[in-house]
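Homework help thread (please don't just give me the answer)

Our assignment gives two proteins as sequence + structure token strings and asks us to describe the second one. The first is just a warm-up. Here they are:
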Amino acid sequence: MKKIFILITFILLIIPLISAINIDIEKQDSNPILIKGLDTPAIFNLKITNWGSAGNLEFYNLLGFMMSPNVIYINQGETKNIVLRIFPIGDLKTEGLYKFKYTIRADDKSEINDYLTVKITKLEDAFEIGANEFDSETSSLEVYLQNKLNFDFNKINAEFSSPFFEFTETFSLIPNERKNFDIQLNKEDFKKLMAGFYTLKAKITAEDKKANIEGTLKFVEKNLVTTSEDNYGFLITTKSIEKINEGNVLIKSETILKKNIISRLFTTFNIKPNIVERHGLIIYYTWIKDIRPGESLKIVAKTNWLFPFLAIVFITLIVILTKKYSLTNLSLRKKVSFVRAKGGEFALKISIIVNARKYIEKVNIMDKLPPLVKIHERFRGEQPKRINEKQKRIEWEFEKLEPGEHRILSYIIYSKIGVLGKIALPTATAIYEKDGKVHEEQSNRTFFISEQGKRKIED
């Protein structure tokens, strides 16, 4: 009886051991990815070998993850490759490597526990962006987006932006793939930017989940200054010097312009020079200024030769007239003035000023009268030699005139008829001899304007 009890107990103990789950699990990949906010599962490739009885194997966990497939059938001694997908339920709170515990249960309710390691990350940590170095002369640039994960992005929309360019692309990225984009640069967009490091931004959209990532652009130094000069004008000459900073660094510009001591007197500048130095007969003007990228410095110097030209012409005329005047032996100047007559007649006083510059002989001075007037019989000063009423002429004669001798010849004309309008008086004429040669000189012309209520005299 005792032996039978021992045999039954042995059988009851050994049967569960024979029928308990007995499998081997081999993991084909390491650290699958779960991206927070995306509905894409973490995928594990498992190789399962069943050493126990044929039947179903059930996969489940107590951590709030969905698993697919839930159940598989496997024969005794069979090896199956299983693609196990893990779906998170709700938002994932953790990041980094996460050790995932799950359970496999056989038909007889026997179980084994196993662990899978998954990497949980944010969408913005999945990418890297950047670009090649470039300068102000670069016309195209290569920008890249790198998938840093072992994760397949079927569709991505990326909006790239920086101080130098903006563009949008839609594409896919397989695990660890790098996508390059060739961008055409417009120099006008960044001609005023300094060399240095700038931020490259990208707004990534995947499965309606958005993320912002940033990278760095290196805008390397380029020292490039173009200088242009222009000269034009004749009497007003203009010299223009323009410097344009087409590089991307601050340029310290020094511009030197020189003028002689004459031209400097007639030169003006649009910008006041910083330094003015004189070396002998040359004046040096210096402009010093920092020019930022995309900016220019334009210096305009105008030399107005019209002023000295007019001055030279004026002086020349004076010299010519002075010389001509000095060569004249005799000068005559005629004047007219209004006088009031006792009888109310219209009357004018005519004066002829005679100046002898050199010794002259046999001097005859003749003046003509305008029409409709008569000569008053009374004379002051020099008496005329002849008066011809018919020919309207009056004459004076002098045997000689010494150098510097001055005579004033005057007479009065009148008319009983009132005169309105402008009266032109004839010029006086002098005929004389100098060194045995006969010469002739004439006076200026004079005018008298008579109007009702006023009278005006013009010489």
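The one we have to describe:
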Amino acid sequence: MNTVILASVTFIYLASFVVFLVGGITGRGSWGRSGRIIAIMGLLFHTVGLVMRWVESHQAGMGHAPLSNFYESLVFFSWAVCLFYLLYTLKDAKALIGVFMMGVAFLLMAYASFSPTVDTRIQPLIPALKSNWLIVHVITCFLGYAAFFMASSLGIISLMKKDSAEIQASVRDMLEKSLKAGFILFTLGIITGSVWAHFAWGRYWGWDPKETWALITWFIYASAIHVRVIDGSVSRRVAVITIIGLVSVLFTYFGVNYLPGLHSYQ
């Protein structure tokens, strides 16, 4: 039942994306507000679906949070992306940002729900994953990913909107906030992952492909913050670095799955 609800969220996010796109093209604020309302509705259904999956996991005798396999990571990633968009646009729907963020949320859910290569079944945990560190590590990492997506999307918009000082100031402010939030969350994700690895495998760091690329991603966004301090504001250089970071985030999440390692989703 949870997969049916979560699949329906895909179409709600698609509707939100389309409405935001129309709002971005027409410049009418009413479209942006409508897109935001649809996104809120989608997030509510999304949350219900995640809770139901957790409950169904308990009923099946597994009892773990819906964060353990590729399908569940895609679903939670999409949820986090939508959440960050809504949190960062409480006062203004900002249709153009909605196009980026809700477009990502839609694509993640579409891949999770309708790709023939993604297994949607609730699966038992392997022994190494039976730890409370699973929840903390996965949540902080994916919230960090979502914040980085927000920062990178704003970086793209910042480069697109260089002719508008007012929009630029608003975008730069949100970019800086999402960049800092993502960096803090992702740092916590790496730290909790290291502690978890120590308990599960007896070492804090093993240079697994996922660990290596997570560290590369961390350094890229750390350099963005460093350049922000040097330049005194969110400059063009910062925006470009966040876009480079987005490529690294995508490879850290998707790319390393094709490499042998402990973090490869099956």
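TA reply:
I won't write it for you, but here's a hint about the kind of observation we're looking for: The chain has a mean pLDDT of 87.
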